[in-house]
């Protein structure tokens, strides 16, 4: 079973959209393998967003992601990485298709409701940042 990391970001989680977003994922046939509510720290953000360190938007990204609790998930299923990214929609909610997570719940390109791994390699790197093997249930 393929797995992907999903983060319901502070904007969507804080507005009480986690349940509706989880329902979209479950209705699409994805299995919730792991889930937890947590506060991202600056060291955790640096580990997760390592490829963005030094870019002009990095400080604002870290400030946003550490500003309030979020929900971290591991979803599983056949082709889950590609399918979750399609269900999430375009990063810019103005460009996202109707019915996608970002069209329904995102505010703008930064406060865009969710993060999802973009490849099997990213998922393999990102999942252990947030979850141990003992926290996942296939």
Structural write-up:
With 138 residues, the protein is α+β, with helices and mostly antiparallel strands. 40% of the residues lie in helices and 19% in strands. The protein is built from 7 helices and 4 strands, in the order E-H-H-E-H-H-E-H-H-E-H. The longest helix has 11 residues, at 120-130. The chain is globular. The model has no long low-confidence stretch (mean pLDDT 97).
Short description:
By secondary structure, the protein is an alpha+beta fold.
Which series of helices and strands comes N to C?
EHHEHHEHHEH
pLDDT averaged residue by residue: 97
Largest sheet: 4 strands, antiparallel
Give the terminus-to-terminus CA distance. Answer: 8 Å
Relative helix content: 25-40%
Poorly predicted regions are none
Shape: globular
Report strand order across the widest sheet.
2-3-1-4
The number of distinct helices, counting runs of at least 4 residues, comes to 7
Structural class: alpha+beta
| C-alpha-based Rg, rounded | 14 Å
Identify the quaternary structure here. Answer: single chain
Strand content is 15-25%
Using DSSP, what is the number of strands?
4
């Amino acid at each position: 079973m393929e797995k992907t990391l999903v983060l319901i970001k502070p904007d969507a989680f804080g507005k009480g959209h986690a349940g509706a977003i989880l329902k979209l994922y479950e209705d699409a046939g994805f299995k919730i393998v792991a889930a937890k509510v947590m506060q991202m720290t600056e060291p955790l953000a640096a580990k997760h967003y390592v490829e963005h360190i030094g870019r002009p938007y990095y400080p604002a990204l870290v400030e946003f992601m550490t500003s309030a609790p979020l929900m971290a998930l591991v979803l599983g299923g056949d082709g889950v990485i590609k399918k979750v990214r399609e269900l999430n929609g375009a990063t810019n909610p103005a460009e996202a298709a109707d019915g996608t997570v970002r069209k329904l719940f995102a505010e703008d390109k930064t406060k865009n409701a969710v993060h999802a791994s973009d490849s099997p390699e990213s998922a393999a790197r990102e999942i252990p940042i947030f979850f141990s093997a003992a926290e996942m249930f296939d």
